[in-house]
Amino acid sequence: MTSELDKPTQRAAFRQVRDSYVNGLTDQDRALAFSKIPSPLAKCLTPGKIVAGYVAKGSEVDPAAILAQAHAMGCDLALPHVTSKSAPMRFLRWSPDDDLVPGAFGLLQPAETAPECKPDIVLVPMLAYDDRLIRLGQGAGHYDRALSVLDHSIAIGLAWSVQFTSVLASDIWDVPLDAVLTEKSWITL
């Protein structure tokens, strides 16, 4: 593996690319990006489905508008709950009126007393994605471990278009996404 294909190098490079891109967007562009659910995703959002999102940090894509629209369509919501690098990530029920508490790694998450659930659709943050819909995350493996046991759940990565590369470094435990949504397109294999 060459140095440009190792995960730490790619993480640093794509974090910088994402930050630069988002910093260069106008307020209007930021407000419009990811503000409407694309029709392929809308078809999956039937009442009673559980949609898991996340609270964005920094230049990550913010799924707040998608979650609000899914909730208005009758979907239940969930957010990840993380306690440490080695502990499994759990998905806990959440609604837009619920308070969030500080968690590991500076994450905002539901209180650990919120009911655990198994999401039908998981909106996944990332640093990069490739032609195989492999994603590069922050490196703790929380999403790969969670997705590996969520059979029948649909994993949709949220990324800015500049986070694409043709090939990412990958390991056998990396779980491919079912789709990627960028500010410009809906991508599937």
Automatic annotation (TrEMBL):
It comes from the Bacteria. ATP binds at R135, L136, G137, Q138, G139, A140, G141, H142, Y143. Its EC number is 6.3.3.2. Its cofactor is Mg(2+). It is an enzyme of class 6 (ligase). Substrate binds at V55, E60. GO terms for molecular function: 5-formyltetrahydrofolate cyclo-ligase activity; ATP binding; metal ion binding. It catalyses: (6S)-5-formyl-5,6,7,8-tetrahydrofolate + ATP = (6R)-5,10-methenyltetrahydrofolate + ADP + phosphate. GO terms for biological process: folic acid-containing compound biosynthetic process; tetrahydrofolate interconversion. Keywords: ATP-binding, Ligase, Magnesium, Metal-binding, Nucleotide-binding. InterPro entries: FTHF_cligase, FTHF_cligase-like_sf, NagB/RpiA_transferase-like. Belongs to the 5-formyltetrahydrofolate cyclo-ligase family. This is 5-formyltetrahydrofolate cyclo-ligase. It comes from Sphingorhabdus rigui.
